[in-house]
Amino acid sequence: MFDLIVGIIYMAFIVYFMIIEIQSVCEMKWKYLQQFWCYIEWGMICCSWASIGIYVRRYYEMKRIGSVFHRSKGYEYVNLQFATHMDDILTFLLGFCCFFGTIKLLRFCRYHRHLSLLGDTLRYVGKDLFFFTASFAIMVTAFIALFYLLFTSKILTCSSLFSTTQMIFEMILMKFDASEIRAADDVLGPICFTLFIFLIVFIGMTMFVSIISDGFRSIRERNRVDFKTDFEMFEFMWDRLLRQLGNLK
User: Fold this and answer.
1) How far is the C-alpha of 236 from the C-alpha of 137, rounded, in Å?
2) Are the C-beta atoms of residues 43 and 96 closer than 8 Å to each other?
3) pTM
């Protein structure tokens, strides 16, 4: 009963947010699609409605299985594959709902001067990050093709493109045993590994950190000069709350 009440309250909020988003679409037209948060909102709305549909379908499937089991007294074969599949899909959808809901918490951080630095920094360096990500992805793809074509018959982790991609990301995180590459080829192995570490790990990661650091420094300096009204409102509300708590004591 408690789960049903909580679910009804949750869907009431989803309907409310959906109405707000529809009104925003009607008012802003194409400008609405240029906002990042609209995709988060609709992602949570779509996953929530899909979860309701899957939940209802799973409920009727479980009732059917229960009726078959009750009628046969447990002597008839019951296929639980579809019910298990529905349960897995529901779990995935609920996971995405929690993900989108948690991401939405970052939106409330814009009212705090320090917590809003993350969003402001990413917005400030968005263009630079886009071009860096494009070039970085091309370089990583080139190394994936290189390692796959050179060591596909010599190293187990390079036997497929998927496993090679996984190995490349492990190398970026410096969690890879380079002895396998060296054992596969005494000449090409160390050369490819050294080239990858130099271009991807040293240069690529250094550029990424530099872009974020420069953007963070610029945003912090700008916030010192341009003190936002949202920050003043948050600090005013926080001071009022502390005063009220002090009066209660």
Assistant:
1) 45
2) yes
3) 0.58
Of 157, 151, 160, which is closest to residue 184 (Cα–Cα)?
151
DSSP 68-85: HHHHHTT-S----HHHHH
**CA 246/CA 238 separation, integer angstroms:** 12
Class of residue 167 by CB neighbours under 10 A (exposed 0-12, middle 13-18, buried 19+): buried
Give the pair of three-digit tokens for residue 72: 């046969």
Which residue pairs from 149-156 have beta carbons closer than 8 angstroms and sit at least 24 positions apart in sequence?
150/185, 150/188, 150/192, 151/181, 151/184, 151/185, 151/189, 154/184, 154/185, 155/180, 155/181, 155/184
pLDDT in tens, the chain (249 residues): 677 787 788 888 888 888 888 888 888 878 877 777 788 888 888 988 998 888 888 888 888 888 888 787 767 777 788 888 888 888 898 888 888 888 877 776 666 666 667 777 777 888 888 899 999 999 999 999 998 888 888 888 888 888 888 888 888 888 877 788 888 888 888 888 889 989 888 898 889 888 888 888 887 777 665 545 455 555 555 566 666 666 554
Rounded to a whole number of angstroms, the CA Rg of the chain reads 27
Which residues are CB-neighbours of 90 under 8 A, at least 6 positions away? 51, 54, 55, 58
Q: Which letter, b or e, does each residue of 74-86 get, where b requires 16 or more Cβ atoms within 10 Å of its Cβ?
A: eeeeeeeeebeeb
What span, in angstroms and rounded, lies between the C-alpha atoms of 243 and 29? 43
- The CA distance from 220 to 208, in Å, is 18
Reading the block at residue 245, the tokens are 């708590």
